[in-house]
Amino acid sequence: MVVTTTTAASDEHLHCTFASRYARTSLPRFKIPDGSMPKEAAYQIVNDELMLDGNPRLNLASFVTTWMEPECDKLIMESINKNYVDMDEYPVTTELQNRCVNMIAHLFHAPVGDEETAIGVGTVGSSEAIMLAGLAFKRKWQAKRKAEGKPYDKPNIVTGANVQVCWEKFARYFEVELKEVKLREGYYVMDPAQAVEMVDENTICVAAILGSTLTGEFEDVKLLNELLTKKNKETGWDTPIHVDAASGGFIAPFLYPELEWDFRLPLVKSINVSGHKYGLVYAGVGWVVWRSKDDLPEELVFHINYLGSDQPTFTLNFSKGSCQIIAQYYQFIRLGFEGYKNIMENCMENARLLKEGITKTGRFEILSKDVGVPLVAFSLKDDSKYTVFQISESLRRFGWIVPAYTMPPNAEHIAVLRVVIREDFSHSLAERLVSDIEKVVRELDELPPRSSVKTAHVTVDDLHRGKAERPHLKKTISETERDICSYWRRISDKKTSGVC
Ligand SMILES: *Cc1c(COP(=O)(O)O)cnc(C)c1O
Description:
Blueprint: H1 39-50, H2 70-78, H3 91-107, E1 119-123, H4 126-147, E2 156-160, H5 165-173, E3 177-181, H6 192-198, E4 203-209, H7 221-235, E5 241-244, H8 252-255, E6 268-274, E7 286-290, E8 302-304, E9 311-313, H9 323-360, E10 364-366, E11 375-380, H10 388-396, E12 404-406, E13 415-420, H11 427-446, H12 460-465, H13 471-479, H14 481-492
Helix pairs in contact: 2-9, 3-9, 4-5, 6-7, 9-11, 10-11
This protein binds pyridoxal-5'-phosphate.
The site of pyridoxal-5'-phosphate (PLP) has 15 residues, from α4.
């Protein structure tokens, strides 16, 4: 028998990664390594590091799809190497996108007729969709002002203070002033009357949200349309409405078909929806639909022909994957109206169950409404002993990711927890979550009273302005510096971390 010793060089031929040198060397983090490594080792190492990420299925912070049928996973893997922008090379994929746009426009009651034909485009998500819709409004408004010989350098947009961060991005990136209607305690959506009051001759559009990110509540688009129509008549302006239906666009048509929020309202000129939220596709797809060709200025559409025949494109990025578009089409034909309706009803039912369980603990006030996106947003009735942030932290121990955040102005003093109910969050998981919340609350009850919890009311501004010098906080700031630091971090990027 020949006995050989294993040298470092012969490691490459071993199939057991954990017996190789790759298991005992730290990986380069700043520079591409000089040499290669075997594929098995690379797979194992990357896979293992990723084990430390949270479990997406237990990530109750996100609206974004975390489960699809294996048949669709297969379609996705089969199309993972198709660049969506190669429309001439992949005409069928382009055709599937167009069919999806048609179906969504129909779902949102786009008018059908010779002069009004809806158009739309697939995007990476609602954020890109909103940038495009916003740009179209800005261009239209500028063209009109130019034609009238009026200044066109101070465009603004009116929204609620509850808007998702992508609206703030749009405003900053494309130099449009964001005029936000403030919230107040007990009212966490845009007040249509106040919004219309803020509209002036420089307003490019009013953006309403169907499914506020914070509480899931639908804004009253019908009333907004009514009030704005009246104002337009009085002033001679023609301020339009955009509906950000990122989460609610695939809820309302199935659960509340009578609710008028879409193209049935004449001032609604464009709508966005996230295919990767209740459209039930993995991350990477959104949609924007315009009521008619007239609502999308032609100068924003680029015609490219170097990939083949003339292709009109209106997107921010050039290349992107095709598989999300293909997956969206799969979901539409696989589930049909009936399937979507059943799934949304199940989500609502599980939201109700969770809400009941949370209410039964007696500790929480429910902020989300019965009509809206299936989520449960709740705040502590009494936060003098512990805060929602501590509850969120404690739930992590059981694997649950439940975000806690403070409300936007002027309701910053309200801090809430939010659980988003997705398709793959079942009845039994809802029961488990309720019992884990009960456990956490009981544990926190046992803790000695800590005045530190008052940090829930301390904002960065307060500390800078010295407001935190109030006697009941004086002691606690030094005591709980760590708490506050992590709280700062949370509130300073509350719109980008976890709450999406
Ligand atoms: C999620 C969300 C967005 C952003 O959508 P993405 O698809 O994640 O880019 C915008 N607005 C609202 C109301 C949302 O809920």
